């Protein structure tokens, strides 16, 4: 069994133990986190929905990310990750939301926002969202996206433990 499948199963079990549903808000992964979760039979008992918000317009329309936030900080920022996670909670039945926004490459990086930079947002219903970042080695788009899924699931597990 792959590590991502095992993590997805652990995350789903943790949600089940807490009696909560989960949602995702994904940009750079394009739905890979929700796919990892829904690949598991029985996941419908704890998975509510996944928002795939690749464009800024989708982030604003589906999650309520502020145009001001995007203009001031960009799509790949702490502020956007926080608003994505909070928006996923507000627009779903979920009690935990995992949000990711980053630069998977191979292009699009800059000196201040290199390829491999990913911001993670996590929201628990009734609590302020939190965010943290990682800079993954630029070992290709697939690598950055897989590591983003792994990290998001681990952050979710940590929040539920």
Stretches with pLDDT under 50, minimum 5 residues: none
- Cα Rg: 14 Å
Shape: globular
CATH top-level class: Alpha Beta
Helical content, roughly?
40-55%
Number of strands: 5
What is the terminal-to-terminal distance?
A: 23 Å
Structural class: alpha/beta
| CATH topological fold name | Maf protein
* Strands side by side in the biggest sheet: 2-1-3-4-5
Number of domains: 1
Please identify which CATH superfamily we are dealing with.
CinA-like
Instruction: Describe the sheet with the most strands.
Output: 5 strands, mixed
Which key features would you list for this structure?
alpha/beta, Maf protein, 5-stranded mixed sheet, globular
Report what the structure shows.
With 161 residues, this protein is an alpha/beta fold. The chain has one domain: Alpha-Beta Complex (Maf protein). The chain is 44% helix and 20% strand. The protein is built from six helices and five strands, in the order αβαβαααβββα. A five-stranded mixed beta sheet has the order 2-1-3-4-5, with helices on both faces. α1 (3-18) runs parallel beside α6 (141-160). The mean pLDDT is 97.
Per-chain topology:
Layout: H1 3-18, E1 22-26, H2 32-38, E2 47-52, H3 56-63, H4 67-73, H5 78-90, E3 96-102, E4 117-124, E5 130-135, H6 141-160
Parallel strand pairs: 1-2, 1-3
Antiparallel strand pairs: 3-4, 4-5
Helix pairs in contact: 1-6
Quick structural overview:
The chain is an alpha/beta fold. It has helices at 3-18, 32-38, 56-63, 67-73, 78-90, 141-160, and strands spanning 22-26, 47-52, 96-102, 117-124, 130-135.
């Amino acid at each position: 069994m792959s590590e991502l499948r095992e993590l997805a199963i652990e995350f789903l079990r943790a949600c089940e133990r807490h009696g909560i549903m989960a949602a995702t808000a994904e940009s750079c992964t394009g739905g890979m986190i929700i796919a990892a979760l829904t690949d598991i039979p029985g996941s419908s008992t704890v998975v509510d929905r996944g928002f795939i918000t690749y464009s800024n317009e989708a982030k604003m329309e589906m999650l309520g990310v502020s145009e001001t936030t995007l203009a001031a900080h960009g799509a790949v920022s702490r502020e956007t990750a926080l608003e994505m996670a909070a928006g996923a909670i507000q627009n779903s039945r979920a009690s935990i939301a995992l949000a990711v926004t980053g630069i998977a490459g191979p292009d699009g990086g800059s000196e201040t926002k290199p390829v491999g930079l990913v911001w993670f947002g996590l929201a628990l219903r009734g609590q302020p969202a939190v965010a943290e970042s990682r800079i993954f080695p630029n070992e290709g788009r697939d690598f950055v996206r897989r590591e983003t899924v792994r990290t998001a699931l681990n952050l979710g597990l940590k929040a539920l433990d």
